[in-house]
Amino acid sequence: MLRKVLYALLGLGPLVVVVDRAGASDMVLFIVAAAALIPLAWVIGEATEHAARHTGPGIGGFLNATFGNAPELIIALFAVSDGLTEVVRGSLSGSVVGNLLLVLGFSLAFGGRGMLDRESSLISLALVAAATTLFFVPAAPSWSGDPDRHSLAVLSVPISIVLLLVYLAATWYSLRRHRLLHLGSEDEEAEGWSLPASVLVLAAATVVTAFVAEILVHSLEAFAEKAHLSDFFVAAVIVAIVGNAAEHGGAVVVAYRGRLKLAAEIALSSSAQVAVFLIPAVALLSWAIEPLALSFRPVELIALGGSSLFVAFLLHGGRSSRGRGIALVAAYGIVALAFFLVGDRNP
Q1: Is 112 left (phi over 0), alpha (psi -120 to 50) or beta?
Q2: Cys bridge to 269: 15, 61, 98, 288, which one at CB 3.0-4.6 A?
Q3: How many angstroms separate the CA atoms of 218 and 242, rounded?
Q4: What is the DSSP track for 179-220?
Q5: What confidence tens digit (pLDDT) does each residue in 100-151 have?
């Protein structure tokens, strides 16, 4: 019954676009768009689970992270074109923290006890830590003066290139490792959707999610202004959660079904992919629109580094539990509170 309802709710995706074109109020757009993301997240989780039966959890998590992060890339580039640089940086850093603490936390809380891929988890966390360290290079000079000055955008280019090279090397190693593990396993013959069908559904759902997420972000910004929330908080918390709706729903769904290893791969792979691929990709692509400097604020870098260390501490043994999941969600609440308290950057 629930499955039929979710399939029916997929019609909300096109409805959001129609309602937006009709000039509906921001409140109506927010409600319809938020509701539309629920079945879309479920479809992405469903397609990922079917794809993972053919590829293994490691590659399955990579596929979900790749398709799930596509809306964030689109949202970021739209924000760059509108000159919302703080929104871009806040949403991207908030996305990494959200995946590490909120998505992974809910996954462990719903999945309970189980074993995780310790090596894969540590690789993802190491990538986030490495990216955070490199971000200090253009970020530290931005703490005085104009954070969007051209020299910092230029300084961000070599940092972005290095991160992309690290991403390519890490992705090649991880996919090769997961492929070998999957070939060497004795899993049952894959059932359900074929791999091409799963990937096609992932791609289609991601495209629709991108449109819905963009509309939801615009309505959230207008709502946040009326609620007297800072642009930074809206970007780092609300926009980041919206952009990660696919990972949120997909990871929790597969964790609840007992595929905890896949759920953890989704959350951790997504956080690493945002840190070492999406952020530098946005920085480089922004030069076709308006150069973007990776001028992250101190609170953002503290949140990034602290989150990766906290997750590494909890998962160093490769085991999960509901208590660890609750601790991660609580940590995200503390970070969100910090983002709320610091407000916008002083001019």
Answers
A1: left
A2: 61
A3: 11
A4: HHHHHHS-PPPP-SS-HHHHHHHHHHHHHHHHHHHHHHHHHH
A5: 999 899 888 888 787 777 778 888 899 999 999 999 999 999 998 899 999 9
Q: Which two tokens stand for residue 165?
A: 């090279």
Share of the chain above pLDDT 70, in %: 85
pLDDT mean over 65-88: 79
Is residue 347 pLDDT above 70, yes or no? no
Q: Decide: 50 and 193 in contact? Cβ < 8 Å.
A: yes
Report how far residue 235's alpha carbon sits from residue 216's, in angstroms, rounded to the nearest whole number. 12
In 57-191, the DSSP E strands lie at 114-115
pTM, entire model: 0.81
Q: Residue 50 is encoded by which pair of tokens?
A: 């079917």
User: What are the backbone dihedrals phi and psi of residue 41, each rounded to the nearest 5 degrees, phi first?
Assistant: -65, -40
Structure tokens at 197: 């069908």
Give the CATH fold of the 2-185+198-342 domain: A middle domain of Talin 1 (1.20.1420)
Closest CA to 132 of 316, 243, 296: 296
